[in-house]
């Protein structure tokens, strides 16, 4: 367990006080079976170094072990699904880097213990890429990505939904966080103007609802996520 406080300045600036393991476990117990389900989606909006996400991933991977320890191909896929179901946002870049690393190491160590050898390169690259996209350096309150000084940029926080289909194929669907919260609507009377302004940009508004439409990428095999997504 890491120290709960890194510096007084960080506590004052960002309220950074990490939760200790006993409380993390007790709070996860309150949620019950939901956090053990392999594909149940979890967002930690102020994830720090990942104390909650680590505990939840460990419970999910325990389920993967119980169900698929003797079926390597299914263990491979389901351990990736477990990772892909977790999302985190933190405003401090070093926390984001450590959080991704903590989750990656947990997944790799569990894999090695259950399967008896380290995960192959393509699988490691898939998990690393999913964590790069799912654990985000951003400001949860403003819904924007932040720069290295924790200041808001103009770029929106975007969550990648991982939709697994048959034979191990997966679609990545980009959803803007402001849209998910319903905070992306142009002001009254500005809808047409906003649509004209945004034509040709990455994000297009749905003409009916005024919300930003999700972006659905071509499906790839999950073991190619690291090289293709
Ligand atoms: C009280 S700590 C909790 C960290 C972690 N959830 C835990 O329990 O160990 C709050 C975290 O939120 C981050 N934070 C503060 N303001 C934020 C914001 N507007 N958006 C995203 N993260 C923020 C801080 O950097 C810090 O890591």
How would you describe this structure to a colleague?
- The structure is a single chain.
- The strands form two sheets. A five-stranded mixed β-sheet has the order 1-2-3-4-5.
- The longest helix is centred in the middle third of the chain and has 23 residues.
- By secondary structure, it is of the alpha+beta class.
- Helix 2 packs across helix 3, helix 4 runs antiparallel to helix 5 and helix 4 runs parallel beside helix 6.
- 45% of the residues lie in helices and 17% in strands.
- The protein is globular and about 60 Å long.
- It has nine helices and nine strands.
- The chain has one domain.
- Bound molecules: S-adenosylmethionine.
List keywords for this structure.
about 230 residues, four-stranded antiparallel β-sheet, alpha+beta, 9 helices, binds S-adenosylmethionine
